[in-house]
Amino acid sequence: MKPNRLILLASLVALAGLGRAATNDYFAQGIRFSSAGQFPEAAAAFGQAAQARPAAGTLVNLGIAEWQRGRAGAAILAWEQARWINPFEARAQANLKFARPVAQVDEPPLKWFETASTWLPGDAWVWLAGASLWLAVGALVLPGVFRRRRAGWESSLASLGFGIFLVAMTANVGVVTRADLGVVLKKNAPLLLTPTRESEIVSTLAAGESARKLRVRGNYYFIRTALASGWIARDQFGLVDAR
Amino acid sequence: MKFPTIIKQFVLPLALALGGRALAADETNAVAPATGRDFYNAGTKLLAGKKYADAEKMFQSALAAQDEKVQPSALYNLGHARFDEGAGLLKKGPDAQKLNAQGNAALAAGEHAIHESEAALQDARIDKLVSAYLEGRGARHDLRDAEKAVQSAMETYGKTLLEWQRAAEDFKGVAELHPADTNAVWNAKIVDRSIANLVDSVRRMQEMSGRMGRQRQDLGKLLSKLKGQIPAPDAPPGAAGDEDEDDVQPGSLAGQKENASHEGDQMQIPISPEAAGQILNGLSLDGSRRLPMSDKQGAPAKEKTGRNW
User: Fold this and answer.
1) What is the pLDDT of residues A22-33, one digit of tens each?
2) Burial of B201 from C-beta contacts in 10 A (0-12 / 13-18 / 19+)
3) Does A232 share its domain with A205?
4) Nearest CA of chain A to the CA of B63: how many Å?
């Protein structure tokens, strides 16, 4: 390897290390501010940490800080994002169970394949679909490649692989449609008839209310809640899949 | 049967029946709008027919359909419908010039009456007091009428303002959706200018209404003073009951609270034994006379022949 390339690689590794250190700094700052009861500062620190490296734990803490400073919408969104990254995050689940009745909002209504998609993290379903497909294909093709008769267990393995592949694909569809779910961030956020600044207001939404994004136009999302549909300004609606 | 008779008896009624049926079918086939485009078209027809309120509803439905192609045009026409609706309200409402003239005349009459009343109070001549009193009463009546007219006009202006504000927002919305639509920008400017003019008129009217209210109060006080100085035999007719309904001040109601106790306070009025006897014997009239009681049995009441309503 040439010396120039070595230097470049080393500097990249160093930069990654610095970034991680900075994220850890923000996280540590957030913890300190939370312990001191300075929740707005804590929320800002956790927010920066989550932006740099989204992690379920950071988002749970961000949600707690937001809840403590009275922002129910932002708190519910942070916990939903934590669950999106890690569906097994028990604290996020418990906090959502507590917060939704207090904020008087309902859980988003999920279709069956969306519910199935919550059993594993979104990325895991992609890996599972790929692995199961290759397993099934391998179990079917490899005996032929090695010029031997296919055994019974190989056929069963292929069937199992295809079965898992189908389930994983359905769950992947659920992951894709669930990515359009979001949470209203501000209290009494206006739901507009048209995507314009001075539009007529269809209704107002409570902070923390769940809705599904259907379209985007300019600075507005067209969303559907349990009771109404209309346009909402982008800064008043956070998507569960922050990416 | 002759041919013309056949036509008369069968063909004509048949043709009429078929024609009627076809007409009825045409009426019932007028399909209710379902899509954004349908609502937009229906609204445009209503707008052309100057049915602004109905057109407004149709355009709102067109907007609610969220058809991106129809939305800007529907919003533009909605702005038109709202502006025209507001202008119609303004036309139907009281004439601003007449109202101004009425208000100014009432204020001038009030001013004159105040001067006359003050002069009469200083002069203290009965004939002058009576004449000033009568003039003041008339002026106060005119002021009250003008004030009512101004209030009614302000209500109309308020409704128009609401419509025009929405219209301006609609045109601005179109400009936001289609920045190239210069007509919408131009219309928004015109509506804003109309709103500014209307707001000026409302302010002038509010000011006039305030001046009239103050003058009416001043006049009311002077009239009370005049009434106090006019001896009862010289008092003009209706002087006893000419108090303005509006003259009741909130302060005068302050003492009329319901007592907290259930029993209530007993009135402590000294009463003589004679008066007590009168009260017990019958209703007292003028302090001494009792209600006249007949000592005769009398004839039975006549049977009413009138219509029983």
Assistant:
1) 667 899 999 999
2) middle
3) yes
4) 7
